[in-house]
Amino acid sequence: MDVYACDVCGYYYDPECGDEENNIAPGTAFGKLPKTWTCPECNASKSEFYRLDPDDWEYEDDEEEGEEDYEEE
Ligand SMILES: [Zn+2]
Q1: How far is the CA of 59 from the centre of ligand 1 (A)?
Q2: Starting from the edge strand earliest in sequence, which strands make up the sheet with 12-13, in order?
Q3: Which end of the chain is more exposed for a tag (fewer CB within 10 A), N or C?
Q4: Ligand 1 centroid to 61 CA: how many Å?
Q5: 49-70 per-position pLDDT tens digit
Q6: CA 71, CA 44: separation in Å to the nearest integer?
Q7: Do residues 27 and 16 make contact, with C-beta atoms less than 8 angstroms apart?
Q8: Cα 44–47–50 angle (5° rounding)?
Q9: How far does Cα 71 stand from its chain's mean position?
Q10: CA of residue 48 to ligand 1 center, whole Å
Q11: How far is the centre of ligand 1, averaged over its atoms, from the C-alpha of 64 (Å)?
């Protein structure tokens, strides 16, 4: 599934992870997110997101359970 990035703050929506803060279950494709869904980081609407080309998407290869990699403010 495609990863989408927030054009405003750089947040990545990874469908395999879902979005815990907004009660989005893992495995939910970006296109299946509710219209009311907004970026958990900056509240930007879905229209602010763009699809990441998988070739540009470099995922760090560590598998920490229950730990998110991004920093909180
Ligand atoms: Zn954002």
Answers
A1: 19
A2: 12-13, 4-6, 49-51
A3: C
A4: 23
A5: 999 987 765 655 555 556 566 6
A6: 18
A7: yes
A8: 100
A9: 14
A10: 8
A11: 23
6 contact partners, CB below 8 Å, separation of at least 6: 12, 13, 39, 41, 42, 44, 48, 49
% of the chain at pLDDT higher than 70:
75
CA of 31 to the centre of ligand 1 (A): 17
pLDDT tens sequence across 41-53? 999 999 999 999 8
Burial 30-56 (b: 16+ CB within 10 A, else e): beebeeebbbbbeebebebbeebeeee
